[in-house]
Amino acid sequence: MTGIGAREVRSNLFGGAMLPAVALGLAWPLMGLSLVALLGYPLLTLRIIHSIRLRGMTEREARIYAVFCVIGKIPSAYGQIRYWLRHARGRRTSLIEYK
What we know:
- The protein has one domain (about 5-90).
- About 65% of the residues lie in helices and about 0% in strands.
- It has four helices and no strands.
- The chain has helices spanning about 5-25, 40-55, 60-70, 75-90.
- The radius of gyration is 16 Å and the shape is flat.
């Protein structure tokens, strides 16, 4: 996957679909040990906070921004997967226009 936005697509698919699916899917066989992988979310939040603080945002604004960036990975991954499934079936996806 290359091109404009490819990094964001990969990030959303990993953080919003693959990581939670694997962590939850292996939780029972690994006696919950795989759930440690979900600690990546707080670490990502801290990384975003640090990055945004360097750009001049206040601590409070940076925390809010970071939390919603991480939470947003799940619906973004859902939308991307839904698009690809519809595209593979030959269905057109409609454009959502905000006014």
